Amino acid sequence: MGQKINPLGFRLGTTQNHHSFWFAQPKNFSVGLQEDEKIRNCIKNYVQKNKRISPGFEGIGIARIEIQKRIDLIQVIIYIGFPNLLIEGQTRGIEELQMNVQKEVRSVNRRLNIAITRIEKPYGHPNILAEYMASQLRNRVSFRKAMKRAIELTEQTDTKGIQIQIAGRIDGKEIARVEWIREGRVPLQTIRAKIDYCSYTIRTIHGVLGLKIWIFVDEE
Asked: What is the CA angle 150-219-61, rounded to 5?
């Protein structure tokens, strides 16, 4: 049987970089890891609360959050698909966000610096696509229609292939099943191939659905 490995971890060091970049002694490693998790959750919650309502997209639009730690500085880079979803006065919003994260982390002797980077083609990123599909499925759109729509959005961003898999009580059926669809090439075995991946949990009224998206970006 083919063992399913996380495509991002599988490609670390070749086409994929770490999302957190810091060094710690073995005994302090778990503390640093929890700190990263806190920072990411805090940012997501803040954006969720303060974003502007936009028609057709209910997610937070964050593709990924990169964290770099030095002795006296924590540098956080937020890659966001729709910056206008974030607060109107960008600088005021970032300052407020910085205050929130600083409280959460409680680092006395380290400065916190948050930068926001805009993504050119947001629907080429699986996290943003997953949020879009989740909002569709919550609004009782049939899953096939949601999948096809997601693939259409991705095709506009010049990706070479996409695979989407949904598992759970699809369309509220009694028996859970797995459905998937693929468009283009998705060479999961090729380490040279840059593949972006995300798994996302969708909470619907019938129960929880698992959504996985693989996007074949480019080959080196």
From this structure: 35
Query: Any idea of the CA torsion for 173, 154, 122, 211, to the nearest 10 degrees?
Result: 30
| pTM across the whole model | 0.88
CB 149 within 8 A of CB 136: yes
Query: Which has the closest alpha carbon to 128: 208, 37, 47?
Result: 47
The tokens for 10 are 């599988």
Give alpha helix (H) positions in the chain: 7-10, 29-50, 90-105, 126-138, 143-155
DSSP string covering 130-187: HHHHHHHHHTT--HHHHHHHHHHHHHTTT-SEEEEEEEESGGG-SS-EEEEEEEE---
Q: Please say whether the structural domain 120-217 has been given the CATH code 3.40.50.300.
A: no
What superfamily does domain 15-116 belong to in CATH? K homology (KH) domain (3.30.300.20)
Cβ–Cβ under 8 Å, residues 76 and 114: yes
Fill in the amino acid letter for 164: I
Q: For residue 18, which amino acid is it?
A: H
pLDDT tens-place string over residues 44-90: 888 888 777 666 677 788 899 999 999 889 999 999 887 766 654 56
